[in-house]
Every structure is written in C-alpha cells, then in structure tokens.
Design a protein that fits this description.
about 130 residues; alpha+beta; SH3 type barrels; rod-shaped
Length: about 130
C-alpha cells in the first residue's frame, strides 16, 4: 500500500531537456487516478443507483392488499394508498399512516403463498 501511495506522489523524473517525459509520462501519472475512479464507479456508485431505482419502482407500485415491512420493522397490509402516504393495517382494529418512503419492502412470501393458493384452488376445481 505504501509503495502504491509513494508511486502516486512521485512525479516522472525530468529528462535532459527539462521535460518530464512528454504526453506519455503525464498519462502514466494520471492512469492510477483514472483506474481508482473507474473502480469506485463500478463497485459503489453504479450498484447504489440500481438499488435506488428498484426502490423507487417498488414504492411507486404499492397497492391495496400488499403486505409490507416498514423501516421500523412493522409488518402489515396496505389498506389505502395516497399520493405521499399509505395506511397500513397492523391488527384487527389498528391502522397506521406511513410515508411511502418508510416502506422498506414488500413481503415476497405473501405474494408467493397467494399465487400458490390460487393454483391449488384452480387444480381442485378441475378435478
């Protein structure tokens, strides 16, 4: 690590005419910086942007009946959807209003169970 930092700090040695190696020397000086920026983009920035887009898509497709989990860990079923908020039913008589951004995810297990129940009912009717 120290050798890498030291090589970044050192400039190309001057040549006999006083130039520091021409365009190739300056390119080689900036090449590690360009590589670090590219690594940061592909390992940090790009995946974060993809995750943010997926979250925005999930929040925009919330609908009544979806089982959701909030950032506070509250599980419930959406009773109504407003422009900036949702009302979540957490118990028989308990409804709580949350901002849409407070939803951390839609429970996939509930969706899968619902689709499995539908397929079982369909197969039972055909027999």
């Amino acid at each position: 690590m120290n050798a890498f930092v030291l090589s970044l700090l050192m400039a190309a040695p001057p040549t006999a005419d006083g130039a520091s190696g021409g365009p190739a020397g300056s390119l080689m000086t900036f090449l590690p910086f360009i590589a670090i920026i590219a690594i940061f983009y592909f390992l940090i920035i790009r995946p974060q942007n993809k995750k943010q887009k997926e979250t925005q898509k999930m929040l925009s497709t919330l609908k009544k009946g979806d089982r959701v989990v909030t950032i506070g860990g509250i599980h419930g079923t959406i009773q109504s959807v407003k422009e900036q908020s949702i009302i979540v039913k957490v118990d028989e008589n308990t409804k709580i209003e949350f901002s849409r951004s407070a939803v951390s995810g839609v429970e996939a297990a509930a969706k899968e169970a619902k689709s499995e129940n539908n397929t079982e009912e369909d197969s039972g009717e055909k027999e």
